[in-house]
Model the fold of this input.
Amino acid sequence: MAMAKTLRKKIQADVKRLCRLSFAKAKFVPGQTPVSYAGRVYDEKEMFNLVDASLDFWLTAGRYAAEFEKRLAEFIKVKYCLLTNSGSSANLLAISALTSPLLKERQLKKGDEVITTACGFPTTLNPILQNNLVPVFIDVELGTYNIRAELVERAITKKTKAIFVPHTLGNPANIALILKIAKKYNLWFIEDNCDALGSIYKGRLTGSFGDIATCSFYPAHHITMGEGGAVLTSNPLLKRIIMSFRDWGRDCYCGPGLDNTCRKRFSQKFGNLPQGYDHKYVYSHIGYNLKVTDMQAAVGVAQLDKLGGFIKSRRENFSFLKKSLKGYQKYLVLPEPSEESMPSWFGFPILVKENAPFTRNGLVTYLEQRKIATRMLFGGNLTKQPAYEDTRYRIFGSLQHTDMVMNNLFWIGVYPGLKLEQLTYMKNTIIGFLEKI
Done:
């Protein structure tokens, strides 16, 4: 045992040395070195955790996964965190859980409606359709790019059962109004918190308000596991259901490698199965296998140690760009934080006004040619995407602002890997384009 500890310490030192040799940062050369919109920020600590987990050869979820779930739940201030293999899977689990018959009269059934936005990433929408539910699209605000919460109540029908909205690019939606409506009509509220880890609304972290919330740990997000996601809830029944859907649909809730947690493994009766059928092989939902590996979780544990600094950098980088471009609002709509919020920004959205003497594509091309990466606001108006041509949905009112986002908006990065020299280059390049107009 002592020899094993000594060897692990040696490996740790070797990993640290290798990391510093292999990943030394090159000098930034404006116009030549690419400026990414996002990226992973890590050091030898993530690499050692990854190696350390592999040396256990546990492979599936283990000690690192348990530590991560405990720490993230404590950070967000919810009771339960369940890791999964991606943010997209987290969204799938969140919606699928609400179709469980264990929820009785609140169970979502085929044809029920879920209010959401067409302006966003497809994996907020996809689980609604994959569960044979009907999305109801509401337009977004300009400036915040969040759902127009004041329209939500008017969109509700007898079939409406849930509200599922993202906090766009880290900017919190109008949670207070949404919660008020959800409570009045007994609707489920699900937060897509994948782009907003660390965002604060009225003194509380986003992800702590909904019946369920989701996170993503893809490399572009606030922290990374490479791939990975999480589902958050404080409802013990929802936690049990989410775990079931994640773990093949089984009724058993034993952790990996454990048996008989319920102490009734061979003494229960389920459905038409024989009395005492092994509880580990009883299935109460039509589920999936969407678990995470302990190696992924090990990287996430090291990232959690850096999360506070990452959030601070994102806010500072956003503020730098906002101040730099403030004098050009004749042509540009700059982002605005939601009322009573402190976003942990995912990106810096820029909307080119319709009367500007240039187009979004003109400015984007100029930036891309100078090695500054840009991104659209994900799918733009998702109802225009080819994947959804033959799907069933309802639009409440118009999607005028959503179309403006699709046609005129792009965003640039604020992630912690961007330093002052990159931010200054971004600022100077944008201003250089605008001054030529």
